């Protein structure tokens, strides 16, 4: 049985083959992980943030996943450099990420959602870790992208428990 390759556009394929800002950042201000090990898409974002201006000075990522996962993570790091945390939060959406890379097959939209979810988790974590409170512009409730990232992780945990032999399952 053969698999038909997904119709990725040339920009997605270029970012997959030549990702921008790939790799671990040793001096990151904040690190956030999101993903679903069951489907294979995992993203770690590293952000270097200017504490005084709250501008993202540097962004890098590590990814384990498909071409769409790597391409969306790569383009997110390019889109956010030089933006304030507030502008990043309000302006970067999965739809804009998908548009910026020239589109994705519909079965791969979740990759853009996951990338933005990881990014928003990093920003929320930054405020939580630094002063314990979120700014007025940040909603108290998780965004759609954050919820989707959490749901994927919860699903992966549920599935992994279901795949364990009976004696390993927790009550």
Walk me through the structure:
This protein is α+β, with helices and mostly antiparallel strands and 171 residues long. The protein has a single domain, classed as Sufe protein. Chain: A (Alpha-Beta Complex). The protein contains six helices and three strands; from the N terminus they run αβββααααα. Strands 1-2-3 form a three-stranded antiparallel β-sheet. Strand 2 and strand 3 form a beta hairpin. Helix 2 crosses helix 5. The radius of gyration is 17 Å and the shape is globular. The protein starts with 9 loop residues before the first helix and ends in a 9-residue tail after the last helix. The relative contact order is 0.16. The mean pLDDT is 86.
């Amino acid at each position: 049985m053969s698999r038909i390759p997904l119709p990725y556009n040339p920009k997605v394929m270029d970012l997959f083959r030549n990702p921008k800002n790939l790799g671990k950042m040793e001096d990151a201000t904040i690190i956030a992980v999101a993903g679903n090990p069951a489907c294979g898409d995992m993203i770690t974002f590293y952000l270097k943030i200017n504490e005084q201006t709250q501008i993202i000075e540097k962004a890098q990522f590590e990814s384990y996943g498909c071409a769409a996962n790597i391409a969306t993570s790569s383009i997110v790091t390019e889109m956010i450099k030089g933006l304030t945390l507030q502008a990043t939060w309000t302006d970067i959406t999965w739809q804009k990420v998908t548009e910026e890379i020239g589109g994705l097959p519909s079965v791969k939209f979740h990759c853009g959602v996951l990338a933005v979810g990881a990014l928003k988790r990093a920003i929320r974590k930054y405020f939580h870790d630094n002063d314990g409170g979120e700014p007025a512009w940040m909603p108290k409730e998780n965004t759609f992208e954050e919820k989707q990232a959490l749901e994927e992780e919860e699903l992966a945990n549920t599935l992994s428990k279901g795949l364990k032999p009976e004696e390993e399952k927790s009550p």
